[in-house]
Amino acid sequence: MTITHRRSPFGRALCAMITPFTEEGALDRAGAAELAAHLVAEGCDGLVLNGTTGESPTTTDAEKAELITAVREAVGARVPLIAGIGTADTRHTAELALAAEKAGADAVLVVAPYYSRPPQEAVAAHFRAVADASGLPVLLYDIPGRTGTRIEPETILRLAEHPRIVGVKDCSYDLLGTQKVLARTDLAYYAGCDEQNLALYAVGAAGCVSTVANAAPRHIAAVLDAFDAGDTARATRLQLRATPLIEAMMDSGLPGTVTAKALLARHAELTRS
């Protein structure tokens, strides 16, 4: 039996790609291009750039655009590129949306404004303004553990009426809230926490945006492949087999960016030796 999922406009197994830097701290364009090509060859059917794992709070606007351009040149039109553009400032976020569109992104990923902790009506107004600023589709990024502000399910339901707001990257840890939105909209939901990849996929999510895919892209994709093939037992085994790696990368007291870069650096050393 093959299981048919709701639409996955940006693919299913997406990688939240790290941003490589040189020893001097400059953006490593060649390294980014090489990593992006490797991830696509290893089964990622979409890449998220300039997100949490991509260290977006610490990169300049020019570096963000340059990264998109470098990756687009490396992978061509083979996979969609989603650009993180979230800031605490609506005007700045809208400017980044236009810059991402010019650089070659296929969609943008937008967090709730952080630090200021706006009420839900202001959160909704922020997202609508950003969605109106460019022609790119918008993925809402619900990650209250980082922003301090939840995008409440009722707010997401209202935002789903906007023609360019097409999906959600879900790091809310609110399974009931997620299911409420899945049941009442056509939004493409992507699990943003690797331990929830299979659980959310099983209730209708479009796929996942995985930090762990930096280190194990084929394995992350294989979980979803098994589920789509109707082999839910194998999907479960594969998800559980990934649990020690997920724990080591995401629950070790270090940010996933740090652990992902450490594993990739170690892989490069082993490859050279």
UniProtKB/TrEMBL annotation:
Entry GO MF terms: 4-hydroxy-tetrahydrodipicolinate synthase activity
Cellular component, GO annotation: cytosol
UniProt xrefs under InterPro entries: Aldolase_TIM (IPR013785), DapA (IPR005263), DapA-like (IPR002220), Schiff_base-form_aldolases_AS (IPR020625), Schiff_base-form_aldolases_CS (IPR020624)
Family: Belongs to the DapA family.
Function per UniProt: Catalyzes the condensation of (S)-aspartate-beta-semialdehyde [(S)-ASA] and pyruvate to 4-hydroxy-tetrahydrodipicolinate (HTPA).
A Pfam family assignment: DHDPS
Major subcellular site: cytoplasm
Keywords from the UniProt entry: Amino-acid biosynthesis, Cytoplasm, Diaminopimelate biosynthesis, Lyase, Lysine biosynthesis, Schiff base
Catalysed reaction, written as an equation: L-aspartate 4-semialdehyde + pyruvate = (2S,4S)-4-hydroxy-2,3,4,5-tetrahydrodipicolinate + H2O + H(+)
Keyword check for Amino-acid biosynthesis: yes
Protein name per Swiss-Prot or TrEMBL: 4-hydroxy-tetrahydrodipicolinate synthase
EC number: 4.3.3.7
GO biological process: diaminopimelate biosynthetic process; lysine biosynthetic process via diaminopimelate
Location of the protein in the cell: Cytoplasm
Source organism per UniProt: Streptomyces misionensis
Residues the record marks as active site: Y141 (proton donor/acceptor), K169 (schiff-base intermediate with substrate)
EC class name: lyase
Binding site for pyruvate: T53, V209
Gene3D superfamilies registered for this protein in UniProt: Aldolase class I
Residues with site note (Part of a proton relay during catalysis): T52, Y115
Pathway the protein takes part in: Amino-acid biosynthesis; L-lysine biosynthesis via DAP pathway; (S)-tetrahydrodipicolinate from L-aspartate: step 3/4
Assembly mode: Homotetramer; dimer of dimers.
